Amino acid sequence: MDMRALENAGAHRYPHLMTRSLTIGRVRGIDVRLHPTFGLVFLWVIIDWRRLGAGLGAAAVVFTLLLILLVFACVLLHEFGHAFMARQHGIVVHDVSLSAIGGVARMEEIPDDPRVEMLVALAGPAANLAFVTALTPLVLLTGIARGFSTLEEYALTVFDPSLSGLLTTLLYANVLIIVFNLLPAFPMDGGRIFRAALSTVLGRDVATRIAVLVGEAFALVLLVFSLIVVQSVILALLALFIMVVAYAEDRAVRVESAMRRLRVGPFALWDMGGISPDQPLANALRGGPRDIAVTKDGRVIGMLWRNTLLVELAQTAAGRTVGQVMEHDPITVDINTPIHDAQQVMRDEGRWALPVTEAGMYRGMFTGDRFLHIYRQVAPDPLRALRAAIERGPLQQFRG
Ligand SMILES: [Zn+2]
């Protein structure tokens, strides 16, 4: 029940950043995917069997499975609420995926504009609210058919393996989804609304930090509560999930603000002038096949892409010049362009390298590899950092 931006550009280029999910369908251009952990839900049914209706036989099994499918359909509805609202505001939505712990609408970016972020965050719970509104008359009808006259009678049918039980449980589940998502704890939708409201006053970085802290504190309380008071594994997992996602969001925002602060210049691969368009094609292979800027009088006039070069050389290269196969007037970036912007250009235009200029003159190349390098510096892998700390730690000293 979370909307999440892809961590960086061209995720398709970095398979390790992608979730290995199974695509099960497509709704108005948005893929619906199942995360492998979704299978855990059925494991949970077996583990939590006692409370869900042991001793009630096959009907209870069918009821439980049907209920789970319907509840997840409501989670999907919630995510599509986010997804469609985001798309309405020009944000590219990649897919909506379901895992054991809920759903995620993965979009190209989380809107910077607090007003848009608030609308997108509200759209999820609003979708469930619309569903509740539509469902309520049906629940009332089936209740009246069974002669119910008090609210308590309805409440008692929750988890009851019957039609009215199913509808009432569904209603109950949607109310829970709404309430739970509106908790002002990051990464819940309520946390995003909270963050968006704070950012109008405090700026996005500080607002995120505060929202994350509130989220972590809330998750800690939930963890203690779930382990000591109600002893629920599911709640404890949820608390851990909130902690991890809150941490990840904090990290993503810190990375983004660093990428907006850092400039392309210091990170470009400095180059001695590129290649002239009159050069024979074979000369472009000197120094190994790579993407090369084509320059004239120090200015970038073209790009000779490594792939084009290799394809052309495989055919007849004799007598052909760089100018004949280069891309004309390629996109360039200035040394003072923020890395964030350069990376957006690379993502939107599907480029792996951008020529960097200073006052119009060619200076060097900014590549996807450089970006990954900076990314790893700015956002060190916490597990790798931990491993390094352990290796450097007291164990090492004992051995030494
Ligand atoms: Zn949501």
SSE diagram, text form:
Layout: E1 2-5, E2 22-27, E3 30-34, H1 40-47, H2 49-53, H3 58-88, E4 93-99, E5 102-107, H4 114-145, H5 151-156, H6 163-181, H7 189-202, H8 204-229, H9 233-261, E6 269-270, E7 292-296, E8 299-304, H10 306-314, H11 322-325, E9 327-328, E10 333-334, H12 339-349, E11 353-358, E12 361-367, H13 368-378, H14 382-392, H15 394-399
Parallel strand pairs: 1-5, 3-4, 10-11
Antiparallel strand pairs: 2-3, 4-5, 6-12, 7-8, 8-9, 11-12
Helix pairs in contact: 3-4, 3-6, 4-6, 4-7, 7-8, 8-9
The structure holds zinc ion.
Which descriptors apply to this entry?
400 residues; alpha/beta; CBS-domain; 2 domains; five-stranded mixed β-sheet; four-stranded mixed β-sheet; 15 helices; 12 strands; 56% helix; 14% strand; elongated; disordered C terminus; binds zinc ion
Distance between the termini: 49 Å
**Rg calculated over all Cα atoms:** 27 Å
What compounds sit in this structure?
zinc ion
Proportion of residues in β-strands: 5-15%
Helix content: 55-70%
Strand/helix succession: EEEHHHEEHHHHHHEEEHHEEHEEHHH
Structural class: alpha/beta
Number of domains: 2
User: Which residues form runs of ≥5 with pLDDT under 50?
Assistant: 5-19, 393-400
Number of strands: 12
Strand order of the largest sheet: 1-5-4-3-2
* Oligomeric nature of the chains: single chain
Shape: elongated
In DSSP terms (H or I, runs of 4 or more residues), the helix count works out at 15
Characterize the main sheet.
5 strands, mixed
Mean pLDDT: 78
Could you please describe the fold and organization of this structure?
- It is a single chain.
- The protein is 56% helix and 14% strand.
- The protein has helices spanning 40-47, 49-53, 58-88, 114-145, 151-156, 163-181, 189-202, 204-229, 233-261, 306-314, 322-325, 339-349, 368-378, 382-392, 394-399, and strands at 2-5, 22-27, 30-34, 93-99, 102-107, 269-270, 292-296, 299-304, 327-328, 333-334, 353-358, 361-367.
- The chain is elongated and about 90 Å long.
- A hairpin with a 2-residue loop joins β7 (292-296) and β8.
- The chain has a 5-stranded mixed β-sheet, with helices on one face.
- It has 2 domains: 2-261, no CATH class; 265-370, CBS-domain (Roll), CATH 3.10.580.10.
- The protein has 400 residues and is α/β, with parallel strands linked by helices.
- The chain starts with a strand and ends with a helix.
- Zinc ion binds at residues 1-2, 78, 82, 124, 181, 189.
- Zinc ion (ZN) is lined by residues 1-2, 78, 82, 124, 181, 189.
